[in-house]
Automatic annotation (TrEMBL):
Organism: Ciona savignyi
The entry's keywords: Cytoplasm, Cytoskeleton, Nucleus
SUPFAM superfamilies in alphabetical order: Actin-like ATPase domain
Protein name: Actin-related protein 6
The keyword Phosphoprotein is annotated on this UniProt entry: no
SMART domains listed in its UniProt record: ACTIN
Cited PANTHER family: ACTIN (PTHR11937)
Any Pfam family: Actin
Family from the record: Belongs to the actin family. ARP6 subfamily.
Length: 394
């Protein structure tokens, strides 16, 4: 086999791993900027944009599924091409991730593009959580089970594995991901203070900089009613203006409003109420279980003898796990729901975003991956049917 690359093709970013080099992350979108009207920025070209206000996103994914192939192709062409990775596709093998519950038509288009257009030597299609399971297994020899919690951009999935084999009937999905959280923050701020509905890029940064998971929701709500310095939740966030201020930031210490040029938004309840949606989707009218309930539900569908092992090996992946207190809160909620005699143990990887991709790189170094590749010749002989057989629920 030639060079192998891992493409964790997420709805908001591509995570790309090559053997013996660092994993890189590229936006999976095309952007249009208000200030540079005639220009499209494909993926990481956005790094060269000077003004991120009113940035318009064109995404290949909608509601978690790849639907805009033209946009996806432009992003892949750019990232694989000479300006970025400069891949020799026809001399490489590629592991590509796809969402859970993907559509057959999307899988077929994927096979066709990677074999017929990019002419990869062999491909392997799998779910990102499967790669995470391989990583977890490798890092925790002796453990046969794990539950991968993937808090992605469009959804959150809970996927238990036994000996790296997905327990399909136990997979659980919550329709909350990073995108919904950012949208909710935009709506709340637009309703209460300042119209920011077009400021996805900036508000996503506000979310990442200022939001946290509450360890005491009612207590934090009470704190938010206090005035002045006693309201220790309150933060003022200085928005970027792209002349003096290139990136927004939290203003240090409590300040009384000034007449300065800075444009600020005042954050209180939304700092913790936004991530709380992951724990209580019903807060925003989504009639689904919260994260801890969903994990317990998923584990209850696994065979009884594996359940204690599942609860001891829960691994957190995806960008929305990065909120402050995320792990502690989930641990507490699970502790409350699980039977007393069972241990609960959660792992927060150093980088929950690239974890699946790291797992893919690990897997390519083992023999167990061999049987899962499908070569170009096999595709030319067996077509889509060969792919469907080969990539059935890995
Ligand atoms: C890959 O493509 C390049 C450029 O089209 C060509 O020169 C090279 O021979 C091809 N390699 C293989 C293994 O087909
Ligand atoms: C290649 C592969 O295994 N894809 C799977 C991803 O997960 C969904 C549901 O769990 C499966 O239907 C796909 O086949």
């Amino acid at each position: 086999l030639g060079n192998t690359i891992i493409l964790d093709n997420g709805a908001s970013s591509l995570k790309i791993g090559k053997v013996d080099s660092q994993i890189s992350i590229y936006p999976n979108s095309i952007f249009r900027s208000k200030s540079e009207r005639r220009k499209n920025f494909v993926s990481n070209q956005i790094d060269g944009c000077k003004d991120y206000s009113s940035l318009f996103y064109v995404l290949p994914f909608q509601k978690g599924y790849l639907v805009n192939w033209d946009v996806q192709r432009q992003v892949w062409d750019h990232v694989f091409g000479k300006d970025v990775l400069n891949l020799k596709c026809n001399e490489s093998n590629i592991v590509i991730t796809e969402p859970h519950f993907n559509f057959g038509s999307i899988q077929e288009a994927m096979n066709e593009i990677f074999f017929e257009e990019y002419e990869f030597q062999s491909i392997l299609r799998t779910n990102a959580s499967t790669l995470s399971s391989h990583k977890y297994n490798n890092d925790n020899p002796g453990e046969e089970c794990c539950v991968v919690v993937d808090c992605g951009y469009s959804f959150t999935h809970i996927v238990p594995y036994h000996k790296n084999v997905k327990v399909s009937e136990a997979v659980c999905r919550i329709d909350v991901g990073g995108k919904l959280l950012t949208n909710h923050l935009k709506e709340v701020i637009s309703y209460r203070q300042l119209q920011v509905m077009d400021e996805t890029y900036v508000m996503n940064q506000v979310k990442e900089d200022a939001c946290y998971v509450s360890m005491d929701f009612n207590g934090d709500m009470e704190t938010c009613k206090l005035k002045g310095k006693d309201n220790i939740v309150l933060r003022d966030y200085v928005l970027p203006d792209y002349t003096q201020i290139k990136r927004g930031y939290i203003k240090v210490g409590y300040t009384t409003p000034t007449k300065s040029q800075e444009q600020m938004i005042r954050l209180t309840v939304e700092r913790f109420a936004v991530p709380e949606i992951l724990f209580h989707p019903s807060d925003v009218g989504i009639p689904q279980m919260g994260l801890a309930e969903a994990i317990m539900h998923s584990v209850s569908k696994c065979s009884e003898d594996t359940q204690p092992h599942m609860l001891r090996n829960i691994v957190l992946t995806g960008g929305s796990c990065k909120f402050l207190n995320f792990k502690q809160r989930l641990e507490e909620d699970l502790r409350r729901l699980a039977p007393d005699h069972l241990d609960i143990c959660l792992t927060m990887p150093e980088n929950p975003v690239t974890y699946a991709c790291e797992g893919g790189l690990r897997w390519t170094k083992t023999n167990t991956i061999r049987e899962h590749w499908l070569t170009l010749e096999e595709y030319q002989e067996g077509g889509q049917a060969a792919c469907a057989r080969q990539f059935y629920d890995i």
